[in-house]
Amino acid sequence: MTVLGAGAPVPPRSALRIRLAVGAVLLSAAVTAAVVTDALPDWKSLERKVTGAAPDASGTPGSASRGTATGGTGTGGTGTGPGAGKSTKSGNVLTPEGIRKAVAALTAKTGSNRVFGATVYPEYAHFRVAVKGSDTRYESYSYYPDRGLETGIIRGSIIGGDRPVELSRYDWDVVPALLRTAEKDLKVKNPTTRYLIVRPPNTTFDTPAGFSVYLTNEYSETGYLFADAKGKVVSKHPPFR
């Protein structure tokens, strides 16, 4: 047997074996990482599937929440597709009267209208209600005109600077004008989905409480506007082209 000295070149066959061994290790690590990543639950996607909520109910850029699914009453969609602009037989929630009914039902059941934001579609409204005594924990509720308020299965904690806010701070009478402005100025062709986000104040971005109105169409072209809690439009964002 020949013993190679320090610095001696590795024979081609040995070098090939080393490369194959390293490649196998790297491939195994990549497969393991992919399997683990795929197995982890995506709570934000789960909340959207279960509640039909917008990607971020607070509407604040960069804000987020940690959520877990717990037992509770289901809060699935109405079967017409959220935001399609078709109200249920019991009424359209995306109106001043509809929102007030939803808030009244929320207050009657929970004893509070202190939230980390809400999302309102024509068919229903979704709320993230602050847990009593906490400025970070929330529980989810959804309101349907024909079924009333239902407890959601998502509970979590807020990260990213959102602060709880009382819904009494918002002027619901400005909602129709905001929707008209969005239809006129956002230049979304043939919108099929429209919804309102009730945004809480955010200390990280130093933004006050306000509204966001979103329009999108079947091609996922989305435009939105921001307004303060009294309805003054502060910015408009047509679809990126």
Could you characterize the architecture of this molecule?
The chain is of the alpha+beta class and 241 residues long. It has two domains: 12-41; 43-237, no CATH class. It contains four helices and ten strands; from the N terminus they run ααβαβββββαββββ. The chain has helices at residues 12-39, 43-51, 96-110, 175-185, and strands at residues 64-69, 114-120, 125-130, 137-144, 148-159, 165-166, 193-199, 210-216, 222-228, 233-237. It is globular and about 45 Å long.
Layout: helices, strands, pairs:
Layout (H helix, E strand, L loop, with lengths): L11 H28 L3 H9 L12 E6 L26 H15 L3 E7 L4 E6 L6 E8 L3 E12 L5 E2 L8 H11 L7 E7 L10 E7 L5 E7 L4 E5 L4
Antiparallel strand pairs: 1-5, 2-3, 2-6, 2-7, 3-4, 4-5, 7-8, 8-9, 9-10
SSE pattern: HHEHEEEEEHEEEE
Mind describing the biggest β-sheet? 10 strands, antiparallel
Tally of individual helices: 4
Specify Rg, calculated over alpha carbons: 25 Å
Distance between the termini: 70 Å
Portion in beta strands = 25-35%
E-strand count = 10
Structural class: alpha+beta
Poorly predicted runs of 5 or more residues: 1-6, 30-56, 70-81
Helix share, percent:
25-40%
Mean pLDDT: 79
Number of domains: 2
The coarse silhouette is: globular
